[in-house]
Amino acid sequence: MSAHSDVLSGGASESAVDFDALIVGAGFAGIRTLYELRQIGLTARVLETGSDVGGTWYWNRYPGARTDSEAWVYAFCFSKDLLNEWSWSERYPSQPEVERYLRHVVDKFDLRKDMQFNTHVASAVFDESTDTWVVTSDSGATYRTQYLITGLGHSSHPYRPPFPGLDGFSGEWYQSARWPKEEVDFRGKRVALVGTGATGVQLVPAIADQAEHLTVFQRTPNWVLPARNHTLDEETWAEIRADYDAIWQKVFSQNFALPYDSAHRVASDVTPREQQDILERGYRIGHFQFLFETFDDVLVDEKTNELVCEFLRGKIRQTVKDPATAELLCPRYPLLAKRPPLGTLYYESFNRDNVTLVDVSEKPLEDVVPDGLRTADAEYPVDVIVFATGFDAVTGSYHTLDIVGRDGAHLMDTWKDGPRTNLGAMVDGFPNLFMVDGPHVPFANIPAVVDRSVRWIGRTLTEMRDKAHTVIEPTPDAVEKWTNLMSELLQGTLLAKGASVHAWFLGGNIPGKPIVAMNYHGGANNYFATLDEEIDADYPGFTRR
Ligand code: NAP
Known about the structure:
Helix content: 25-40%
Structural class: alpha/beta
Bound molecules: NADP nicotinamide-adenine-dinucleotide phosphate
Number of strands: 20
Oligomer: single chain
Strand content: 15-25%
Distance between the termini: 22 Å
Number of helices: 17
Shape: globular
Radius of gyration: 24 Å
Largest sheet: 8 strands, mixed
């Protein structure tokens, strides 16, 4: 235990805590947190359910899985050395490459020695007599820690609708978020894919390339933006590296923590002809630049949003040869009411003879029969079913462990009507529990959000040490205000329309889950500034002792 530990544990004896901090999860959040705590001289241990690092990138190893943030900003920015030595091979790195990167990071900074794999945390209980957390794993091992830090991931608790009959299915079935490490061979097989979110959109071309036939079951079409993936050569890397400071500065100044400029215009500033030219240009560049560098009012003005939607419908109709299929693929709700996926050869896949689209919006999938899937009026015999049915997102992962705070309060009871936090970082009644990339943080480029959240935790713990504080907790008033702010900010954007189309970021994809704003929709840049302001103002939303 470090020399600081005694101070951090309030002068308690060294045996009082096993670690200054216990971090749950070894994805981007857990890795970044462990690095930060090392930097400030705290002892920490990461406990991770999987057998290696990666988090979402460990579990989501389905064919076609890749990032849809650009490689050079879907990364850690805390080390120049790391930024300069790592060259991603493509604009959007594939899952194996992200996994390799995360392994490289933990090895480079010698983080692995403080990580424990194959260890699922079952519970964490706050012991009020010592102001410490007692963490228990599935196997019954217990650890006592001053600080508990969760990096559980917001897309990590898979959701599969309870289709009756699955146990009796005679073929193979897979869930995208629990994909096996061994390769799945689709050759010569009839495959059903359920789900057309960001995951399904990546799976379609990958499965279609192999399978004898792919039937895609779509309940709600998505706005699939062109990814325009490409390889990155050394010349491009030299340019990116020379520009890294400016790139990251932009990331931390932009609403979605992406290195883009604002368009500095709204749609009504230009003529209809210019509008189309601007959209064409954005479409050629692809990625979320299409959203953020065309018109500044796409997310807030219904008319502009519909203009962009109609442009995209035109692209779908141009790409998909069968008009009936094209119409089924055209969404009728605003862009960004659901998180738009990026696609490569997604719409084109529906021109293949071996791909069929089945609309289950009116006649839902009812059950699984021994040789396939069934709707109210048809049966679809298949050999393999792939469920890409999403996640109990943002808060779902908090169901996998029982967090018990002061007075025996269970976190998930406290959150039964939706998450409640201050700054997306802490919850009243749960002292010394910090969350990284949990609820109420920006809906934005995750590694950047993780970086700023962890930096805030690092600065907060350092301050506490300097002032000999051992316990921190947000005030109920600050939690109430922050939680209310989440809904107010949501209502200012068209993302609020997600309630009608099962948007996961509102909880709408999980039957019975309260529909509330689970993220901060006020701009990542503003969130980062708010974190700094809280420190500068000496933590008005928290009590410390
Ligand atoms: P998702 O967006 O929630 O999509 C789940 C899909 O399953 C939807 O199409 C949904 O239809 C469908 N579904 C659910 N229940 C169904 C039922 N009973 N019958 C028929 N269809 C059903 O989940 P996801 O695709 O895994 O993506 C979730 C998020 O994870 C993304 O938005 C993104 O943030 C992240 N992600 C990122 C990447 C990346 O960075 N490259 C890749 C994958 C995922 P409805 O739309 O009608 O509900």
